[in-house]
């Protein structure tokens, strides 16, 4: 399956994507605000193992974000922790290619994945957390329709200090679509 945007498309992740993930994992600027797993060194084989299982879990939906101009993988996104009972999940995104930062891609991708989560997966609630220091991401989520719910005080640890995380969500009853 593929989801289409104007200049990008979202597709399933493949083991061949491991080289991009490996390069991103080695750049602390890229991974500063991302998953805790990037805080620890990962080998290419670790990443390949992870990619070989990524599409098998019914509790997660992951997509590679690719440029239509050159088919380059620039990041990944999806919904994790999907609960069919509670009809909820947690949105995530990583734009790994720094030259793509600040171009509005995060907002576009957030909208289309959120729409997929609500319209196709039937989720009622999609939530996310973002570092309080990652103002670009927070603005992108606001533009995509997410609302602030609160602050998780000192819930992250980066560069030797505790940082707050912002909790945001969108409900199907307030989702305006794309």
UniProtKB/TrEMBL annotation:
Q: What is the top-level taxon of the source organism?
A: Bacteria
Source organism per entry reads Vibrio stylophorae
Its EC number is 2.3.1.57
Q: Does the keyword Acyltransferase apply?
A: yes
Matches recorded under Pfam families? Acetyltransf_3
Q: Which InterPro entries match?
A: Acyl_CoA_acyltransferase (IPR016181), GNAT_dom (IPR000182)
Which EC class, in a word?
Answer: transferase
**Keyword annotations of the record:** Acyltransferase, Transferase
An example of a GO molecular function for this protein is: diamine N-acetyltransferase activity
Q: What is this protein called?
A: Spermidine N(1)-acetyltransferase
Which residue ranges does the record assign to the N-acetyltransferase domain?
8-169
């Amino acid at each position: 399956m593929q989801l289409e945007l104007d200049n990008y498309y979202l597709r399933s992740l493949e083991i061949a994507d491991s080289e991009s993930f490996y390069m991103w994992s080695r750049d602390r600027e890229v991974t500063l605000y991302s998953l805790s797993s990037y805080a620890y060194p990962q080998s290419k084989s670790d990443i390949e193992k992870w990619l070989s299982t990524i599409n098998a879990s019914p509790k997660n939906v992951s997509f590679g974000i690719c440029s239509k101009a050159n088919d380059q993988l620039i990041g990944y996104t999806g919904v994790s922790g999907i609960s069919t009972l509670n009809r909820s999940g947690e949105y995530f995104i990583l734009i790994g290619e720094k030259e793509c930062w600040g171009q509005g891609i995060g907002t576009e991708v957030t909208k289309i994945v959120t729409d997929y989560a609500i319209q196709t997966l039937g989720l009622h609630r999609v939530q996310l957390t973002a570092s309080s220091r990652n103002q670009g991401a927070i603005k992108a989520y606001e533009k995509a329709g997410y609302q602030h719910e609160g602050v998780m005080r000192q819930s992250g640890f980066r560069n030797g200090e505790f940082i707050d995380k912002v909790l945001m969500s969108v409900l199907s009853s307030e989702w305006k679509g794309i």
